[in-house]
From TrEMBL:
Keywords: Oxidoreductase. Residues 10-322 form the Enoyl reductase (ER) domain. It comes from the Bacteria. GO terms for molecular function: oxidoreductase activity. Its EC number is 1.-.-.-. This is NADPH:quinone oxidoreductase family protein.
Length: 324
């Protein structure tokens, strides 16, 4: 099979498009013929050795796929050859085939496009977990989403609206603001044109926001610490802007808000039943067209470096996928 291989922790340009042996299903595993692989910001950090985990070298990056089961190993009770599925693989997704533990594979209706299915898990599942389990978002609350035109930002806009929140989308361009509006944002703010703090205060009559879904870091995070409502929840999702922020902790004390970490990968490991319940809800919403996975661009597998470069330069509106 063809695959993208990371042989050393290095810039993404050093990734290799190579021939590797086909995987074989061990007990408790299935092999999925990959129709599409989701591309995510942590993939870039992972191959550079900058992520929270460092896999043993060499490895194939890619954590989310969709495709058709081509082999079922022993001790797999319910999955069958020929089923369309979503697979969460941690590693191995940038390939034509991948072996995945059966507990991390979920059958999906044939009506769901496989490219959308491949890009569902990381972005939408992170947003869903963040807003449901971590923020305990309530109907009628105000949700502010930074980086709102990116994959996980758009997911948070869609799911926040579905959960009954008033959604404020924060983006860097008018074009991105329009995409966020099309996906359910009630208010959009182009922070390159206006003062974010003053504009949010104006839109909330000085109260501030109940929940912030913060993907960017740096100065954007610092501004968010100053626009929180009493008993608000500031969700730490990631640092797409590149800077991991530090802030005066007394702000949380005085304003009475919580800073809440969101690490979806750990959630999957620590709360597997909640994870599966969330995934069933997301697949149902996707099948019912209550949410949508917005595909910005599909790249061929051999063009994975270009896909990662586009993502890390923050040019993407929605998700990027690889097609083996």
């Amino acid at each position: 099979m063809k695959a993208i291989v990371c042989r050393n922790f290095a810039p993404v340009e050093d990734l290799e498009y190579a021939d590797l042996p086909d995987p074989v299903a061990k007990p408790g595993e299935v092999v999925v013929d990959v129709s599409a692989s989701g591309v995510n910001f942590p993939d870039s950090l992972l191959v550079q050795g900058l992520y929270q985990m460092k896999p043993e070298l060499p490895f194939i990056p890619g954590s989310e796929v969709a495709g058709i089961i081509s082999e079922v190993g022993p001790e797999v009770p319910y999955l069958k050859v020929g089923m369309p599925v979503i697979g969460i693989c941690q590693l191995g997704g940038y390939a034509q085939k991948v072996a995945i533990p059966c507990m991390q594979v979920m059958p999906i209706p044939a009506s769901i496009p496989l490219d959308q299915a491949a890009a569902l898990t990381t972005a939408h599942a992170t947003a869903h977990h963040a807003l449901k389990q971590r923020a305990l978002l309530q109907e009628g609350e105000t949700l502010l989403v930074t980086g709102a035109a990116g994959g996980t930002g758009l997911a948070a806009v869609q799911i926040g609206k579905l959960m009954g929140a008033k959604v404020i989308a924060v983006c860097s361009t008018d074009e991105k603001c329009e995409v966020a509006k099309q996906n359910g944002a009630d208010i959009t703010i182009n922070y390159s044109k206006v003062d974010l703090k003053d504009t949010v205060k104006s839109h909330t009559n000085g109260k501030g926001v109940d929940v912030v879904y913060e993907c960017v870091g740096g100065d954007t995070f610092h501004t968010c610490t100053r626009i929180m409502a009493w008993a608000g929840r500031l969700l730490v999702i990631g640092f797409a802007g590149g800077e991991i922020p530090k802030f005066p902790i007394n702000l949380a004390l005085v304003k009475g808000f919580s800073v809440v970490g969101v690490f979806w990968g750990s959630f999957v490991q620590h709360q597997p039943q909640d994870f599966m319940s969330n995934m069933k809800q997301l697949v149902t919403w996707l099948a019912e067209k209550k949410i949508e996975v917005v595909i910005d661009e599909a790249f061929k597998l051999e063009a994975a470096v270009g896909a990662l470069d586009k993502l890390t330069s923050r040019q993407v509106m929605g998700k990027v996928v690889l097609i083996p």
